[in-house]
Amino acid sequence: MHIAEGAQRPFPSINLIAMTPRKPLRASDGLANVRYEIRGKLARRALALERLGYDIVSLNIGNPYAFGFRTPETMRLAMIENLRNSEGYVHQKGIFPAREAVVMQQQERGVRNVTAEEVFIGNGVSELIDLALRALLNPGDEVLVPSPDYPLWTAAVNLNTGHAVHYPCRAEQSFIPDPEEVEALITPRTRAIVIVNPNNPTGAVYPKGTLSAMARLAEKHQLVVLSDEIYDHIVYDDAQFVPMATLVHNTLCCTMSGLSKVYRACGYRVGWASFSGDIEGAGEYLSGLELLSSLRLCSNVPGQWAVQTALGGYQSVEELTRPGGRLYESRRAIIEAVARSKFLKLSRPMGALYAFVEVRHDALPDFDDQAFALELLEKKHVLVAPGVSFNVPYRNAFRITNLPEPELLATVFTRIEELLETQAAAGPDFKLVSSTA
């Protein structure tokens, strides 16, 4: 082919991209042991069904707003009135009025050696869990975590190079841990113990004697106590919440709470960690935690202005948890529905926003919680969290929230009972529906 002088010579028609073999982009190996099924495949399938026009009753997450609960108006106003003061960065530990409000709450509860310097505000308790463990753990360090657990705790330990060692909380013991069993799991690598009270997912509220025994073993072995108390005001009947910080003196105690549940303000993303006990011996650790807090600059500022109003104001959640209150009556609906069931049993939840429902082995010996949860979603349009999501060694449980109205919960349990009847009639031949149906 003749090319005229000055003309541009054509490039060879070679598809270099096609010639280069494509390598799949893999996720980090650090995610291998990280699970959060509450927002996993089942939740994604529920969203797909909703996009197809189905009405899904989502009971997998404790999100008060989704069921008509509102943040108290005084908190909303406190945030709105301070928006002009929320446009810049603030101190890495949080604004002083919020931190001082946490100190005052702790002092009212009998915790003496805490000041605003020992309080950190975070983007929800979730962020503070991650930061507290990152500042503490070296590769291979162990953390004692309850089973069933709120799975973020196990995930955060694993993400921060640690190893979660689960201590059992059995249904036949009302999901209250046995301190002797817990102590038997302690090794030279154990650095901390996690206590979730009132408990998610079981609704257990730990008695003072149990908490005192856990405090003593933590002091004996010099373990950091990480006390997740996000549901501290949500208790029912004669249950009494005992702050862990009032019992831990000779080792470091980290109390975590926030606005999400008690104050129905999940979207504000405001939590706090208050340190007490052996503060003097924890100086290096707390400096490390402040360094990590500085690296993320500061937490969400507008929501922090609601903390002082929340903690110092009227505790309206108590109207919801007493007889006649919305949460109390919804909990009652769950308890009564389980009592009527041929297949279900329940350790009576005494706090928090959940019930950890078991399926009786004698009624359905081949029950599988994940298969059931998918079938319930596909056929009955109800989304629950299978028990295995909460790091338990058994497959006969599921968690639901008591946030819906009692009438809706009664309908849900009618659907659950219908599906269990079908499964029982089919026996071992019961087949799981396709997740693409």
Basic shape: globular
* The named CATH superfamily of the largest domain: Type I PLP-dependent aspartate aminotransferase-like (Major domain)
Catalogue the unreliable spans: none
Oligomer: single chain
% residues in beta strands: 5-15%
Structural description of this entry:
- This protein is of the alpha/beta class and 437 residues long.
- It has two domains: 31-60 and 322-429, Alpha-Beta Complex (Aspartate Aminotransferase, domain 1), CATH 3.90.1150.10; 73-312, Aspartate Aminotransferase, domain 2 (3-Layer(aba) Sandwich).
- It is 34% helix and 14% strand.
- The chain has helices spanning 16-19, 41-51, 73-81, 96-108, 124-136, 151-159, 179-184, 208-220, 283-295, 307-312, 317-321, 326-340, 369-380, 406-426; strands spanning 57-58, 119-122, 142-147, 163-168, 190-196, 224-228, 252-258, 271-277, 344-346, 354-359, 382-383, 385-386, 397-401.
- Helix 6 (151-159) links the parallel strand 3 (142-147) and strand 4.
Summarize this, please?
The chain is of the alpha/beta class and about 425 residues long. It contains 14 helices and 13 strands.
State the main characteristics:
4-stranded antiparallel β-sheet; 2 domains; Aspartate Aminotransferase, domain 1; 14% strand; 7-stranded mixed β-sheet; Aspartate Aminotransferase, domain 2; 437 residues; 14 helices; alpha/beta
